[in-house]
Design goal:
Radius of gyration: 25 Å
Strand order of the largest sheet: 1-2-3
Shape: globular
Strand content: 5-15%
Number of helices: 9
Length: about 190
């Protein structure tokens, strides 16, 4: 009888721990969903489609992070060293860096001030950061912020880079180019 009780008790404890593992938790001021041991950063901008775009951007840009950093620097005229510091030392996700740069660019606010507001409110997601500036999902400024992301960055999500993929180009048709020294049929050189 004692063995059955102990076995049942151990099953209950195991189920409690596994249920806790599938809950949303906050770690290092970042909201993380832990399901099947896969960590995903939740953007929580208040717009589901924008959240999906940013989540996919995080996934895709990490494959070619150096190219992504270079493109961000060119799009926002920011030194590459500063962007690398944000990603590697401050451990910000690529989408977070994009939103900080985009927000600073659009409002004209210094990057330091936007980063300070980011640190204060990021544990609650981007919607809390936007609300602190009195910007709400669906507002005119929010829509401009979302729609004015540089096209070079939008291409990351549209192309869906993977480790083995290359840029698509036009394929040459067989026989479309003549070999050197070959003559056209029917023409003679004199």
């Amino acid at each position: 009888m004692k063995k059955i009780v102990l076995f049942t008790l151990s099953l209950c404890i195991f189920s409690v721990f596994s249920a806790q593992a599938n809950q949303t938790r906050v770690t290092n001021n970042v909201t993380v969903n832990t399901v099947n041991t896969v960590n995903t950063v939740v953007m929580n901008t208040g717009d589901v489609q924008f959240d999906q775009f940013l989540t996919k951007l995080n996934t895709v840009s990490e494959v070619r992070l150096d190219v992504y950093i270079t493109d961000l620097c060119n799009a926002y005229q920011v030194p590459a060293q500063r962007v690398r510091r944000l990603i590697h030392k401050r451990r910000m996700s690529p989408a977070d860096v994009l939103l900080v740069l985009q927000f600073s660019h659009m409002t004209g606010a210094p990057l330091k001030r936007v980063l300070q507001r980011y640190r204060e409110h990021h544990s609650r997601g981007w919607q809390a950061i936007f609300n602190s500036y009195e910007i709400y999902p669906g507002s005119r400024f929010f829509l401009i912020l979302r729609n004015e992301i540089p096209t070079i960055i939008v291409h990351y999500v549209e192309q869906g880079w993977s480790k083995g993929s290359k840029k698509k180009g036009s394929k040459k048709r067989k026989g479309s180019k003549r070999k050197k020294g070959s003559k056209k049929k029917g023409s003679k050189r004199k």
